[in-house]
Design goal:
5-stranded antiparallel β-sheet, membrane, globular, BetaGal_gal-bd, Jelly Rolls, single chain, hydrolase, 14 strands, Beta-galactosidase 17, about 0% helix, about 180 residues, mainly beta
Length: about 180
């Protein structure tokens, strides 16, 4: 099993195309504003989404628990809690009979987007809620290796734990927002 953490880069990627009378420049070319105020002290971080199943290089373990859930424990000493990061891992399904609809629980995570086998299963933001997990339909899963990629924008789970559970959970967010 593997986990991949994308290191943040400090250089912006851009390209300049030259042609007769045509110049195309990509990227941010002037100051960035928010509410008519120039923003200072921010970073642009390139995140490569072109190959979400790229071979990861840091390991994680899948732990089986007695109840019908699986915990993916991710470990790394170099996790930055202050910048967006990509976390990717693989888990194995032994047979077609084991493939079932499931949910990935993001309880304890910040906010971001999750992908299973290169398919965007949705955005998560458990502190706002109401959903704590995202639905993963059985047809997205396959026998053998399956990939999970998490684009975390805020802060990862303190233990870097991702759990697969068998039912939805709408108990996240502040209590006064829940009806």
């Amino acid at each position: 099993y593997h986990l991949f953490i994308q290191a943040a880069c400090s250089k912006a990627l851009y390209s300049v195309c030259f042609s007769l009378g045509v110049t195309t420049v990509q990227g941010i070319l002037s100051s960035v504003y928010l509410d008519d105020q120039v923003l200072h002290g921010w970073k642009m971080i390139p995140i490569p989404f072109h190959n979400l199943n790229q071979k990861p290089n840091i390991s994680f373990e899948m732990q089986h628990t007695k109840k019908r859930s699986e915990k993916l424990e991710l470990t790394n000493d170099h996790v930055s809690k202050k910048e967006p990061a990509l976390f990717a891992g693989e888990f194995s399904i032994n047979s077609v009979e084991e493939i079932k609809d499931t949910y990935l629980s993001f309880s304890g995570w910040g906010k971001g987007v999750a992908f299973v086998n290169n398919f965007n299963i949705g955005r998560y933001w458990p502190s706002v809620g109401p959903q704590c997990n995202l639905y993963v339909p059985a047809p997205l899963l396959k026998p053998g290796q399956n990939s999970v990629v998490i684009f975390e924008l805020d802060s990862p789970h303190i233990d870097l734990l991702l759990e697969a559970v068998d039912q939805e959970d709408f108990t996240c967010g502040s209590k006064h927002d829940q009806l």
